[in-house]
Write a structure and sequence with these properties.
It is a multi-pass membrane protein. This is Histidine kinase. Keywords: Cell membrane, Kinase, Membrane, Signal, Transferase, Transmembrane, Transmembrane helix. It is found in: Cell membrane. With about 160 residues, this protein is of the alpha+beta class. The chain folds into two domains: about 1-30; about 35-155, Beta-Lactamase (2-Layer Sandwich), CATH 3.30.450. Helices cover about 40% and strands about 25% of the residues. The chain has four helices and six strands; from the N terminus they run H-H-H-E-E-E-H-E-E-E. The protein has helices spanning about 1-30, 35-55, 55-60, 110-120, and strands at about 70, 75-80, 85, 120-130, 135-145, 150-155. Helix 2 runs antiparallel to helix 3 (about 55-60). The longest helix has 27 residues, at about 1-30. The radius of gyration is 20 Å and the shape is globular. Residues about 10-25 have low confidence and may be disordered.
């Protein structure tokens, strides 16, 4: 009897692992979604471009759709430490102070990021935001870095 229970437990574990592997594979194969690693790499690429080409040219380049800093659901944003939007995929946000912007759960997402940038030079932030590809509000993991008193960021949307 003990052997039968052990076999059942092993089979149940194998089945759970197979389901988990399938879910991860399906997520990884979704070509419309960027990964957190790709978001972090995009921020580093944006910073390199900024340092090489200057503020004016870089900010304009970050908002080009299509362009090298807008790829699938990944895009670069740039804010001042006071929360003024300098570059964003949504041109309606550019030139505005976004410190009062809240996600659907009430989180002050820009204020939280600027507070973190006041204490450190880089980090990750979780919140919910509109995905321009799926056209839905989705959980997002944002990577940011501070440079020249600006905060450069890009984020990956998490599957629902």
């Amino acid at each position: 009897m003990r052997t039968v229970n052990a076999i059942r437990n092993v089979l149940a574990l194998v089945a759970m692992l197979a389901v988990a592997a399938f879910a991860l594979q399906a997520q990884a194969q979704d070509p419309s979604r960027g990964s957190p690693a790709e978001a972090q790499a995009m921020v580093k690429k944006a910073l390199e471009f900024y340092q090489k080409n200057g503020r004016e040219k870089a900010l304009a380049e970050f908002m080009k759709k299509p362009g090298p800093f807008v790829e699938r659901d990944l895009y670069v944003t740039v804010y001042t430490l006071q929360g003024d939007s300098l570059a964003h995929i949504n041109p309606k946000m550019v030139g505005k102070n976004m410190m009062d912007l809240r996600d659907p759960d009430g989180k002050f997402l820009i204020k939280e990021r600027m507070d973190a940038a006041a204490r450190g030079s880089s980090g990750w932030q979780d919140y919910k935001f509109f995905n321009p590809v799926s056209k839905k509000i989705e959980p997002k993991q944002m990577y940011w870095e501070k440079h020249d008193n600006l905060v450069f960021a890009a984020g990956a949307y998490k599957p629902l």
